[in-house]
Every structure is written in structure tokens, then in C-alpha cells.
Amino acid sequence: MATHFSNEALKFLRGLKRNNDRVWFEARRGLFEKELKEPMLKLIGEVNEAMAEFAPMHVRPAQKIIMRIYRDIRFSKDKRPYKNHVSAWWVRDGLQKTSGAGFYFSVTPEEVVIAAGVYMPEREQLLAIRRYLAEHHEEFRGVMKGKKLRSLMKENDGVALSRAPKGFPEEHPAIDLLKNKQWGVSARLPVERAMKTTLLKDVVGRFAAAAPMIAMLNAPLVGKAKRPLF
């Protein structure tokens, strides 16, 4: 049976949202480990098995894909110590220490989020992606208009610039793409889907549909590597 989350897991996340402090969390750490962390690691392993067919360069050990529950509060005014969700990020091999395009999954108290794309890329990566899209915009648009992808996920807001980025003419046929600061797609499903045995299918189906887009966004970031781009 495919891994899914329990009602107790969702109760924990709702409780954490109301009581985001170390005393509350530590008193329930065992519940977090059993109902959230362990199932998430199992689910990641199952997703990895499927991704080996369509995105092998994103398959890594589950412990490296799962994201920490702890928030980085060093430079934040918000000092709440924990995230109120569990999440995972499948980055491409070779881009772990930077950014690049990847696959994302999370369970919050309200919803299941399945996404793919490149978010807040570093300055050099942003320029590389824009240059790539300037030359391959027709192919990229074709990928984004894919029937399966459009039926499963919605295109994200690209946080577009008001003017053409430096070095690109306003009249470029891909200017709408080039003005973006990020590119991606996402699906937001009812949180009840996290408790169904179809959760793995929900994740894998959307990741597979988004894989061609991820491959294109990573193409300019991995140089002239001889290994597969996805």
C-alpha cells in the first residue's frame, strides 16, 4: 500500500500552527517522528523509485530531500522556531548548493502542495535561464502548453519586471518570459488528499508532467555536461 499520512499527522500540524514553541513541540516530538517524518521519508523513497524513470538526476537519498521542520530565524523578525508544514525538495544533482529547477511537495494544515520550477534563482542563474529562453522560447511554450501539464497544474506568477531586463530588447518575441524572475507550475489539493493511498499517484503524476519543463530550465545551468539533463 502506498504511503500516506494519518489524521493524527494533520492534527499535529494544526496544533503546531496554534502552539509554535519549543515546549509544545518537544512534548510531542515522538508523535512528529512517527506520524510525519517517518511517512514523509517513506513517501520520498516511493517517489524516488518512480522518478528514476523520468527524472533520474533528481533522485537522492530521502534524508537529503526532506526539508527541516526548523525555521531559519537568524535574520527574521518572526522568531517562531518551526514551520507549520512538512516538505521535500528534489533538486537536480550538481545544483544542490545553488538553486536550479526542481520538484517540491508539502503538506500543510490546510492543503497539499505539489510544485515544480525554479524559484528565486541566483543572479547568474537568472541571466542564464533568460538567455536560454530567448533562444528556445517556442519549445518552452510548447512544453508549458502540454495537455497533461495544463490539466494537472497551473502556471505560477513569474513575479515579472515592469520593463525588459538589461540586455534584452522590449520587442523580443519572448519578452513576457524574459521579464519573469521565476518560472514554475503548482497544484494545491485539499489536505484530505494527504490521507489517501492515492497520494503517491498525485505527486508522481504531476512531477512526470512537469519534468520536461524542469529539464529545459536546468539546461543552461548544467553547462555542456555529457550526462542526461533530466
Question: How would you summarize this macromolecular structure in one to three sentences?
Answer:
Helix content is 42%, strand content 13%.
By DSSP (H or I, 4+ residues per run), the number of helices equals 8
**Rounded radius of gyration (Å):** 19 Å
Percent strand equals 5-15%
What order do the helices and strands follow? HHHHEEEHHEHEH
Describe the strand arrangement of the main beta sheet, using strand numbers: 1-2-3-5-4
Structural class: alpha+beta
Question: What separation lies between the terminal Cα atoms?
Answer: 28 Å
> In CATH, what is the class?
Alpha Beta
Helix content: 40-55%
Walkthrough of the structure:
The protein has 230 residues and is α+β, with helices and mostly antiparallel strands. The chain has one domain: BirA Bifunctional Protein, domain 2 (2-Layer Sandwich). The chain has 8 helices and 5 strands; from the N terminus they run H-H-H-H-E-E-E-H-H-E-H-E-H. It has a 5-stranded antiparallel β-sheet with strand order 1-2-3-5-4. A hairpin with a 3-residue loop joins strand 2 (102-107) and strand 3 (111-118). It is globular, with a radius of gyration of 19 Å. The model is unreliable at 224-230 (pLDDT under 50).
